[in-house]
Amino acid sequence: MVDIFQEVEEDLKRERSEALWRKYGKYVIGVAAVIVLGVAGREGWKTYEHSTSIENGTRLANAIDLTQSGENNRDAALAALDSIIADGNADFVALGHFQKAAVYLRAGVKESAVAELEAVAGNGDIDQVYRDLAVVEIAMNNATQSNAMDLIARLEPIAVPENAWYYSAREMIAMLHVAAGEIDAAKPLLTEIADDNEAPSGMRSRASEILKAIGA
Fold first, then answer.
1. What are phi and psi of 127, to 5 degrees?
2. Domain that holds residue 167
3. Which of 56, 125, 131, 139 has the fewest C-beta atoms lying within 10 Å of its C-beta?
4. Is 178 found in the same domain as 84?
5. Which of 62, 91, 90, 58 lies closest to 77 in space, CA to CA?
């Protein structure tokens, strides 16, 4: 009889985890494309302004215009970004991959988007801030129950206060614990986020709402 109750409890935990992931995981993932577009655009112009490679900056700006000009220009935009990746310096290589990832995300081609992000994360010549962002984006766009723990292991070195992506990495780790059915592991992380006055307000609100949903 005890075994039956344990099985029922595990099923309830699993259903609750899946429900939470369906409700909140999509929100977190939805932020991913915005981050990619925002960072790629902002950092692209920063690089453009400070880099001696004016030609690469102009090419990137033109490619970004193509990515935003509709589906009919998608192939041309991807080709322009491939050219930048092939010829540009490390910063432009990263930005080219981020922009390609954004194009694929808009088109709903997740696997190709993740491949572009992996190309950034695995390139030792690219600045660490871009590589760390790529890992956060991979987790946001490619999380499943089966790969949650592997993604958590990749995010943990990023979830430190001195890292630019500290808060995003912490939130994603908590959500990955939810995806893996580890509610008890998610609770303290969500509590820390909800109580952190320096965390983004939207992130704190989400953490509080999830804590209420799991009865913490």
1. -55, 140
2. 145-216
3. 125
4. no
5. 62
